[in-house]
Amino acid sequence: MTKAPGIMLKGQHRIGDRVLFDTDLQIPAAQWTCLLGRSGVGKSTILRLILDLETGGTFKGSIAATDGMPLAGRISYMAQSDLLLPWLSVLDNVCIGARLRGTAPNIGRARDLLHRVGLSDHAGQKPASLSGGMRQRAALARSLFEDRPIVFLDEPFSALDAGTRADMQELAAEVLRGRTVLLITHDPAEAARLADQITVMSAQGTQNWPPPATAALREINAAETLACQARLLAHLRGMAA
């Protein structure tokens, strides 16, 4: 893996005559940034802008990596929907990126990731046979399989029960160590546990929120984690009032 850069996004995004957001977002290199904010404020649009995907609006501003190199080809992306190809097996879905690039996938690594997300017994099945939570874990395995320095995760644990969510958070933190990760979440507990930088987004822009002083990945029930979670939740509820 090449060295992970930071990302700078500054500018205004409009949908028709409405300003969706006007922001100056700094995503530090080789750290986890958790982006929170009320629904519809433009969090997923941020990801799509950086990925150069259609957003349904217009953006005036700049997007750049801190190393001055193009971002194209350096980002692994897990969308809100799992986007599993229904005609492929779970294993083949995990390996699809390599196959599309014309390279031989590391099947052993793919199987290991499926084991770690609890889907070894389902590797040969089609996505239609999986539950929503299993499909999300398959999509997570696919994203982790991609050896990219930058990783975008859009609510990657939202369909999981509490215990599985904690397990998958720990797996992602381990596998993505040293990557530049942008995680969109609605869960203050998730941000308090995983983030090196917590960024709260509103129509007025973005502001950084102090994470716990301890290093991520934090214990779920640690006093610092719980205190950050409570303060962040109160702030987010105030924004929605």
Descriptive overview:
The chain is of the alpha/beta class and 241 residues long. The protein folds into 2 domains: 161 residues, P-loop containing nucleotide triphosphate hydrolases (Rossmann fold), CATH 3.40.50; 64 residues, no CATH class. It is 34% helix and 24% strand. It contains 8 helices and 9 strands. The strands form 2 sheets. A 6-stranded mixed β-sheet has the order 5-6-7-3-8-9, sandwiched between helices. Strands 2-1-4 form a 3-stranded antiparallel β-sheet, with no helix packed on it.
Question: What's a quick, concise take on this entry?
Answer:
The protein contains 8 helices and 9 strands. By secondary structure, the chain is an alpha/beta fold.
Count of structural domains: 2
Q: Which residues form runs of ≥5 with pLDDT under 50?
A: none
Second CATH tier, the architecture of the largest domain:
3-Layer(aba) Sandwich
Q: What's the overall average pLDDT, rounded?
A: 94
